[in-house]
Task: structure prediction
Amino acid sequence: MAKLILRDGTELSDYGKPYFVAEVNSSHNGDVAVAKRMIDAAAEAGCQCVKFQSWSAESLYAAEYYKANPISKRFFVKFSLSEDQLMDMAKYCRSKGVQYCSTPYSKKEVDFLLDECEAPFVKIASMETNNHPYLRYIAKKGAPIVFSTGMSTIEEVKKAVEVIEDAGNSQICLLHCISIYPPEMNTIHLNNILGLRELFPNYPIGFSDHSIGCQIANAATALGAALIEKHLTLDHKKIGMDNQMAMEPEDLKNLVNGCNDVCEAMGSKERVVLQAEVEQKAKMRRSVIAARDLKAGQVLTADDLDAKRPGTGISPDRIDSMIGMTVTRDITADELLKESDIK
Result:
């Protein structure tokens, strides 16, 4: 089974309990106090990691774009967090017993994330699939990589993985992802988790969930997702980049608990009759009864026998072999037969 060991020693593997990542993105609106409340909420929900976005206005878009879209630049300046603030987030995460991670958008941000913040892995956004020089740079850092595959053809994903491997890094977790916020149910294609696992058997496969609700994450867990990433907000009614599809704290807690329950319920492929079920047999299974009054010496026919609860007598799987046997005593209709009643 494919496994990935993160820098803090945490193991990601298919068909185990998922590693839960609460995606904060910009839902903190540039407010450190709000961001810390979100970390508190993620920790309380049972997430193992809280992920931020390390972008700045300069690392996202070219200057030409901002000339045509000046409001966008003001937005990104307002909602981005500085290195000092991100370091504060990393320290605060650890004080709350969760790991800090981020999605970097430049080499400088990669270095800061891994060398200064000491994140357990680096998250690569779906938009970077065809950015091979950047993938190569990240791969050479030698850290575990969690890579979203939204907006990408399978050939693009294969090539991206090849670039990372050729740079000497085989520490990869691929995430099935649909880069729509939120996607329609019929566009999610969760079976892609199975498809990615077939194509990349050496790497655990997870799911970056942009759907509304818990059910798709639950289903991804049933398909063996090693990691579940879900966007978090303190209030999805507020205006924000993805607040409308992000989960509020109590819902995130329900999602984590639900996924863990699903994982536990999946159990084994081997059929096992539990002791509690064995104890139910006497109550719930049937025993052979007389379908009508029977006389001593009578030879049994199929019409003479039936089966009803409880299961404390002769098992009904013996009815066929009982046909043609002789009754040893008078038996009343609906009476359970005993071994001594036939010969």
In short: The chain has two domains: 3-266, 275-341.
